[in-house]
Design goal:
Fe-S-containing hydro-lyase, 180 residues, Fe-S_hydro-lyase_TtdB-typ_cat, alpha/beta
């Protein structure tokens, strides 16, 4: 089923999404990869604020290539989500509503998705150039010294993703294997 949703994502929208839904996201999302997640974890451990309010927001596991002239961002394909699995449950417990990446997630992430009414989306790997066309603007908001791993605030329009894990605990990857 095709769904069009706004980001930040409302609790109602997140709870209505089902594994296998094709989703087109419009609004604000944030990027963060391994190094940025490590810094966010360190900030939380030190009792400091995060660089952005995670409540209701979406983190896209992506590190872009340099932007071509006239474009806000270069190729913007997803990175492997499992590298963020040791950080994701804590962010989900703080109100993170969605994650976009590629690949499988741990049981701990799945439990946190269900516990918090969140969702894990997959973006198509290898389609970074096409995905970048759905990004209207890109602004580094934290950890600029990390280069491509800095946290960016993106404005997206009809950014395509597939619900892989919904808040009922259904995992599309497992469902596909069951039906083989």
């Amino acid at each position: 089923m095709d769904r069009y949703i706004q980001a930040p994502i409302s609790e109602e929208d997140a709870k209505s999404l089902r594994a296998g839904d094709y989703v087109y996201i419009t609004g604000t999302i944030y990027t963060a990869r391994d190094a940025a997640h490590k810094r966010m974890q360190e900030a939380l451990d030190a009792g400091q604020e995060l660089p952005f309010d995670v409540k209701g927001n979406v983190i896209y596991y992506m590190g872009p290539s340099p932007a071509r002239e006239g474009r806000p961002i270069g190729s913007a394909g997803p990175t492997t989500a499992s590298r963020m699995d040791k950080y994701a449950p804590r962010l989900l417990d703080l109100g993170l509503r969605g994650m976009i990446g590629k690949g499988k997630r741990t049981q701990e992430v799945r439990d946190a998705v269900v516990r918090n009414g969140a969702v894990y989306f997959a973006a198509v790997g290898g389609a970074g150039a096409l995905l970048s066309k759905r990004i209207l603007s890109s602004e580094v908001i934290a950890y600029e010294d990390l280069g491509t791993e800095a946290i960016r605030k993106l404005q997206v329009e009809n950014f395509p993703a597939i619900v892989v894990m919904d808040c009922q605990g259904t995992n599309l990857y497992e469902e596909v294997l069951k039906n083989k």
